[in-house]
Design brief:
Elements: H1 4-23, H2 28-32, H3 39-61, E1 66-70, E2 76-83, E3 88-93, E4 96-101, H4 107-118, H5 126-138, H6 142-153, H7 159-170, H8 234-243, H9 245-255, H10 265-275, H11 279-293, H12 304-317, H13 324-340, H14 351-368, H15 375-397, H16 409-427, H17 436-449, H18 475-490, H19 495-504, H20 513-523, E5 539-542, E6 547-551, E7 560-564, E8 580-584, E9 586-589, H21 601-607, E10 616-619, H22 659-664, H23 666-669, E11 673-679, E12 683-689, E13 699-709, E14 713-722, E15 728-735, E16 740-742, E17 745-750, E18 753-761, E19 766-771, E20 777-778, E21 781-782, E22 798-803, E23 810-821, E24 830-834, E25 838-843, E26 846-851, E27 857-861, E28 864-868
Antiparallel strand pairs: 1-2, 2-3, 3-4, 5-6, 6-7, 7-8, 8-9, 10-15, 11-12, 12-13, 13-14, 14-23, 15-22, 16-17, 17-18, 18-23, 19-22, 20-21, 24-25, 25-26, 26-27, 27-28
Helix pairs in contact: 3-4, 3-5, 4-5, 5-6, 5-7, 9-10, 9-20, 10-11, 10-12, 10-20, 11-12, 11-13, 12-14, 14-15, 14-16, 16-18, 17-18, 18-19, 18-20
């Protein structure tokens, strides 16, 4: 039953809406009346604009509702449908259902709707931003129009031309913006520690830099007793305000909107209130921090560290506006949270150690130093644990800058780097030299983890790797870019990082400035020398994770290739040793399935399994996979890699607590090795031993050798030996689109990308395709994902399986994959010659000879001969 007061509220909203429709007339034509165009032309242009806007809204509503649209009547609207017959939009506000006549929608409201419909993180739309900008300009708000226009430019080319077309049609003009006055700086109090460490000012270099490292702790100093201090003094922040005026403007615009639903608004609100001496904004930020401080203490695998970090920023930047009682409550909340989570997130191989927990504790300690009697002690405990336990993990799993946990590095690296910068800023503590294999390579590895793209928001889409990744753009992409910026600022004297800076500047400002604009303000340092991106190397090897990344250029249409063959260290890894990924204009060959839950039936029996990856299956009908993988349901036998960790120290999640645990359980965790990596420009060679990833009861040998002949040909040679001839071997290729053609040569086309697939060996192989309901099925069972989890994601649609016709203990598999644009009709035909000692494949003028009895061979490309040697090229 609806409570009486709620019925009254619903009635009141309905009446308010009826009055709004009855008495509010469209303002668009009136807005155009002041333009230089004739009345008739303006009216015609206005009708065309509104028609375009409603067509755009119709298209967006066909995909998903548009929520949280602020309306001039004071209501917040959610739009769910478009009724052409009634010429109205179907909406809700609170518990009221409304039909909104198109003719009743005011210009400003239409702009709000278009902007909301354009701004989804997974699919931002430049066309919508342009339409909204035109509406706002017609309504007299040039500042808001200019902001949206800049936003559109981060999403697409040709924005200025499209905008100019509308201006001409409507007779509008865009005036040159007047310089924005900066708030007068408040005089700094005398005394206190004024030491500031701006990005890069005291950063040691790395080998090859002009500035050599001075060692950790060499510039340590006392924490200033003044506030603010987390990001430097107010004087330093005022300097950034002048230097990064555009980024500051975006941040300030968002902060002053006081978005009630976004916790990431707190840093922006705190920074702006500090720099503009805005007490009301500071009190709003403090009110949000107090929600955490007076709420229940969070414990366990939840983001209590984020709550602490955002609140600590508010505590520091808004310090004069906190009451004594509020400060006491915040410090009590901080200490209780620390005490309650001593046993939480203790695995330095896991993202939670850094992001869920310790960055927030660290920021809270620096923010409350001298006022919280326990701050120094808590910070010292964190510092000691990081040095003793986390540093060895970073140097091990993070050697080369990637991370064994895979995609989850993108969820914690930004937060941890913020703590590292705060420690340098507040105390001169430099954590980067403690783990140089990781930190000095992280920005480079991050750059190589990104898929090619033509538009700004496309250049920070990470390759899928382990749980959670789909190769898409989202809010975490802004953190990826910001993390690289922090490291580039630090290693600014290194020529390689200067080339990373050039890559970073493909996105001059963040693509989602509303929530993440404060990152632009703090970290987008344009004083770093920009290197020549065309001189950047074209591949990268990260030995810690056992991953190789390669591309043929730094252009948006580059062929992209990824290979992994590393140890088992973290719970978010999958059974994917030997897996490879190929991208050209679109996802072509990748990993299958959906991360619908950590322990779902789909996840434990399909998504993490070898069958969902581009690797090898050997089916032993007697093999039993343990029940309770990830504490999930009973397990089936896909013929893939083993899961021997349940019942051991690594547990049902199969993760190592720390480096000593890895060492003590090396026979379980050390399951694969990259044997070779060398890049000779026109070709790259890598190889891996995948044998130990499988049960020794069925797999005697599995090595994979890969030659990437630039620009687009990938040759994959596999040697596989089962312990019994009748154990069926299956080479698996997961494709984003079902291929066409006739085996052994097939073609998979996805949008603007195409993959030519040639099965050279085994000769006369059995090749089957599995799509639709069969995609998620094996052994007579089906493991489909939860459908909503897959919405909007570029998921695999077909699995190709290749098996020998005749049973044998040993088999050779040879495939040639050529990635092109969709307009290409043919690829160079591959031909092979097999002897007892080697396999020679000729394709497109290249001749590659693989040894049959060992990992090795020779190659001739462009008349130049090379050796496929078992070595790691520096």
């Amino acid at each position: 039953m609806t409570p009486p007061f709620r019925s009254v509220a619903v009635w009141f909203v309905s009446v308010l809406w009826a009055l709004s429709c009855a008495f509010v007339i469209p303002q668009l034509a009136l807005s155009f009346a002041a333009s230089t165009a004739s009345g008739a032309e303006a009216k015609d242009g206005a009708e065309k604009l509104r028609s375009s806007c409603f067509r755009f809204v119709e298209r967006r509503l066909a995909k998903r509702p548009v929520a949280d649209v602020p309306w001039s009547s004071g209501m917040t609207m959610t739009f769910a449908g478009y009724d052409k017959a009634k010429e109205s939009l179907q909406a809700t506000s609170g518990e009221s259902s409304l039909d909104v006549p198109l003719k009743s929608i005011k210009t400003r409201d239409l702009a709000s709707l278009i902007k909301a419909a354009s701004g989804s993180e997974d699919s931002p739309d430049a066309d919508g931003y342009i339409l909204a900008a035109v509406l706002l300009l017609s309504d007299g708000d040039q500042g808001a129009a200019s902001h949206l226009l800049e936003r559109a430019k981060t999403q697409a080319a040709g924005v200025d031309d499209s905008f100019a077309h509308w201006l001409e049609l409507l007779g509008l003009e865009m005036k040159a913006p007047e310089p924005k006055p900066q708030p007068e700086a408040k005089k700094e109090p005398e005394g206190g520690d004024k030491t500031d460490i701006a990005g890069g000012e005291t950063a040691p270099g790395i080998p090859g830099s002009t500035k050599l490292p001075t060692g950790p702790g060499s510039k340590k100093h006392a924490v200033s007793k003044e506030h603010p201090r987390l990001f430097g003094s107010k004087q330093r922040l005022q300097g950034l305000m002048q230097e990064r005026a555009y980024g500051y403007g975006l941040m300030a615009d968002y902060a002053k909107k006081k978005d009630a639903y976004d916790p990431t608004a707190m840093p922006a609100m705190a920074l702006v209130s500090c720099l503009e001496n805005d007490k009301d904004l500071a009190r709003e930020a403090i009110k949000r921090a107090m929600v955490y401080a007076t709420g229940p203490i969070k414990v366990g695998h939840v983001t209590f560290g984020h709550d602490l970090a955002y609140s600590a920023m508010v505590y520091d930047l808004c310090h004069p506006y906190w009451t004594a009682d509020e400060k006491t409550k915040f410090i009590d909340y901080m200490n209780k949270t620390v005490d309650a989570n001593v046993g939480s997130e203790t695995y330095p191989y896991h993202n939670g150690y850094y992001g869920y927990k310790n960055w927030g504790i660290g920021l809270a300690c620096y923010a409350t130093m001298y006022e919280n009697p326990r701050a120094a002690e808590i910070l010292a405990t964190l510092d000691a644990d990081f040095r003793a336990r986390a540093v060895p993990c970073l140097e091990h799993a993070g050697d080369g800058g990637a991370w064994s946990e895979g995609h989850y590095i993108h969820y914690w690296i930004y937060e941890w780097l913020v703590f590292c910068e705060v420690a340098r800023m507040c105390e001169g503590v430099d954590y980067y030299p403690l783990a140089p294999k990781f930190f000095a390579n992280r920005a480079v590895a991050s750059m190589f983890q990104m898929l090619p793209g033509h538009l700004p928001h496309e250049t920070n889409r990470p390759v899928p790797d382990g749980d959670g990744g789909y190769g898409t753009y989202g809010g975490f992409s802004e953190k990826i870019l910001s993390a690289r910026r922090i490291l580039v600022n630090y290693y600014r004297n290194d020529p390689v990082h200067q080339m990373v800076h050039a890559y970073n500047q493909l996105v001059p400002h963040l693509c989602i400035p509303e929530s993440y604009g404060y990152m632009d303000f703090l970290w987008n340092d344009l004083s770093v020398t920009k290197g020549d991106l065309k001189q950047m190397k074209l591949s990268h090897f990260a030995p810690g994770a056992g991953e190789v990344f390669a591309r043929n250029s730094w252009d948006g249409d580059s062929t992209y290739f990824f290979f992994k063959c590393g140890d088992r260290i973290s719970a978010h890894q999958q059974l994917d040793v030997g897996h490879f990924f190929i991208y050209r204009q679109e996802h072509l060959a990748g990993d299958s399935g959906v991360y619908d839950a950590f322990d779902s039936n789909h996840c434990v029996n399909y998504y993490i399994r070898s069958i969902a990856h581009n690797t090898m299956l050997v089916y032993d009908p007697a093999e039993k996979f343990p029940d309770g993988i990830r504490a999930g349901p009973a397990s089936a036998n896909d013929g893939g890699q083993a899961y021997p960790w349940k019942g051991t120290a690594m547990g049902h999640n199969a993760g190592c607590l720390d480096f000593p645990m890895f060492t003590a359980n090396k026979q379980l965790a050390d399951i694969a090795d990259v044997l070779a990596y060398e890049d000779h420009g026109s070709w790259l060679y890598t190889a891996g031993d995948c044998t130990r990833a499988y049960s020794s009861a069925k797999m005697a040998l599995f090595t994979r050798q890969i030659v990437f002949i630039r620009p687009s040909t990938i040759v994959i040679f596999d040697r596989v030996k089962a312990t019994k001839p009748d154990y069926k071997k299956t080479w698996v290729l997961n494709l984003h689109k079902t291929p066409t053609g006739t085996a052994p040569t097939m073609v998979s086309t996805n949008g603007n990308g195409k993959l030519f697939i040639q099965t050279v060996l085994p000769a006369n192989a059995d090749i089957t395709l599995h799509s639709g309901a069969e995609l998620y099925a094996y052994e007579g069972k089906s493991f489909p994902p939860n459908p909503p989890a897959a919405a909007g994601m570029p998921i695999v649609e077909c699995r190709m399986e290749v098996s020998p016709k005749t049973a044998s203990a040993s088999d050779l598999f040879l495939h040639v994959l050529t990635a092109t644009d969709a307009k290409t009709d043919t690829a160079a035909k591959a031909e092979a010659k097999v002897t007892g000692s080697d396999v020679t494949v000729t394709v497109g003028g290249a001749v590659i000879k693989f040894d049959v009895n060992s990992v090795g061979g020779t190659i001739v490309v462009g008349g130049q001969k090379g050796t496929l040697a078992n070595k790691i090229q520096p």
